[in-house]
């Protein structure tokens, strides 16, 4: 090896020396010494081998190709190129080089296998099967070659021929699971259900305690609508294993199809009560109930009963309580949902999704103190989660801690990994919080960003337009947005009041009266002190002073405490 490296080193020096001379001398230099050519070829071959071992397939392809320019008679190089072109997913070239290698050395079984592989990646499965047919003739003791021949015949859509070869293989090696599986699959493709079932029964006869084979047989019957035979198989399983969940679920499915509700529920609850039945499979079975409950109220009780069985069977599994919490949440049973989410977190506090659900429960229960405490815990534990800061902002806003709300919501925006709908909610709530602190420019900017994300958000349109009207700014834009909110929710008395108030600020008193009287047709508006006071303001500017004072007094009686209301009543005049 040292001699070889020394020779290469000398050659390198000679080439370097040649490069130092005139360029035309280099162009006309032709190496004719066979020994040097052979050394260079060997160098390229071993370099290609190293590149291949390092996973640099494209460099290896280049090096093997350069090698073949110096030595076209080495079938191994063609073989290696065939394998490499399969690695880089160039099936056409792979087949060409594989053909060449196999033709140059037809007795090399590795070259023949590579040729079969190349035919396969070119989806020429008949040709691949033919290669293995020759190999089985040459090596009759090989079980692998026979198996591969059968597999390629199956891929070539020649099920009868493939089945014959698998039968030949079975005669050599006896009843083997993989061969039986392939045979039954081919028989089913040929619509020979009974023959396919007979193949699986061979496995059962060989190993009657292996329940997998029973289920495979039941699946064959089930897939071909032979419910009676499948039912019999499941009952066979239950005689061997009375609590087998898979058999119980299979029988539950058949009972449901035949409208046997009692049988369905009996089998299903037996399966779910079994602690050895995987909780993950139980959760996957129950999870669709969360969607079904919205369409069918009878699913609520079923879902809750199933989750109760899961909790009883798996009392130490956090996901059991989390799923039960989801069920209660979906059914609007918030206290029970909270209890189960809390239990889930006591068993496993690493799942942010459960913390999120618990924050959502507190927000729905309108308990801002609890929500703030919980969201503080969540933001400490999961500082990169958007929703923790969002709920922290919600809680702070509800508690009128507006600077804290602004800080939390801006942190949520900084994290910026929330869903689009929540990003719009953040901007909307920021608009409200900035308004509450008198930061009107930031408030307007936040509302504009919210509307860019969700242009048809009626609540944002209403709030933004109302706050503009309070300041008497950009009233045309405010009126446009308020009218749009009414187009979206035409039966909202709150939005009617906003629109009436904007029209009032535009001195369109008759139009304002029309809309506020429309709002007052709703009972909730008749109890709203702000609406009543607005009506009094509109009436006064329409010269109906007596009625205006009457509604100002009603507003005061309902709890209105706006600046100037007492003076309006006392002085019987509108005070802005």
Molecular structure report:
The chain has about 575 residues and is mainly α. It has helices at about 1-20, 25, 35-55, 55-70, 75-85, 90-105, 110-120, 125-140, 145-155, 160-175, 175-190, 195-205, 210-225, 225-240, 245-255, 260-270, 280-285, 290-295, 300-315, 320-330, 335-345, 350-365, 370-380, 385-400, 400-415, 420-435, 440-455, 460-470, 475-490, 495-505, 510-520, 525, 530-540, 545-555, 565-570. The longest helix is centred in the N-terminal third of the chain and has 20 residues, at about 35-55. The termini are far apart. The model is unreliable at about 1-30 (pLDDT under 50).
Q: What is the mean pLDDT?
A: 90
Strand content: under 5%
Uncertain residue segments: 1-29
Rough shape?
elongated
Based on DSSP secondary structure assignment, what is the total number of beta strands? Answer: 0
Main sheet, how many strands, which sense, barrel?
none
Instruction: Supply the helix-strand structural class.
Output: mainly alpha
Radius of gyration: 40 Å
Helix content: over 70%
**Distance between the amino and carboxyl termini:** 102 Å
Task: Give me the number of helical elements.
Answer: 35
